[in-house]
């Protein structure tokens, strides 16, 4: 494998570090998945950056606003802070090509499986994506990580079980480098 000691780990948000809630626009619905804080704490101790990259199509679909998303993200940061950890950055894509809100109805390079958010973070932090990992519960996450050159991990929380079935049936072109049952299993690769 390319990089067994990453400079950064990119995490999808919903279904990966917090419980999957279909179109999470209410901060009260956010809860961390078991082990999230311990994984982030371990990465921080090793000097590895933790960066969230998340598609938020609910904005383009008119299900919640960017202000609602900010409230959800602020709650996430607060919950992590209460656990004694912090993320280094959070990037989100509010776009969807079939959205109901015209200003967000675009094809963009930031919506996963495009790697735009990863490239932006790498530029901002001056890191090489080939020296990074990506962890997500959807094959679109895996696609973004693969396209950027990251080592990819499909976690079987959130939509992970459904997505692994797509790989088995060969209905998807994106294949993760590793499959892990839960987020804490990521630590076995460090």
Automatic annotation (TrEMBL):
GO terms for molecular function: metal ion binding; phosphatase activity. Keywords: Carbohydrate metabolism, Cytoplasm, Hydrolase, Magnesium, Metal-binding, Zinc. It is found in: Cytoplasm. It is an enzyme of class 3 (hydrolase). Mg(2+) binds at residues 12, 14, 137-138. Substrate binds at residues 12-14, 20-23, 54-57, 111-112, 138. Its cofactor is Zn(2+); Mg(2+). Zn(2+) binds at residues 93, 95, 108, 110. The record marks 54, 111-112 as: Stabilizes the phosphoryl group. The active site is at 12 (nucleophile), 14 (proton donor). Its main location: cytoplasm. One of its GO terms (biological process) is carbohydrate metabolic process. It comes from the Bacteria. Its EC number is 3.1.3.-. PANTHER family: D-GLYCERO-BETA-D-MANNO-HEPTOSE-1,7-BISPHOSPHATE 7-PHOSPHATASE. Belongs to the gmhB family. This is D,D-heptose 1,7-bisphosphate phosphatase. It comes from Pelotomaculum propionicicum. The gene is gmhB.
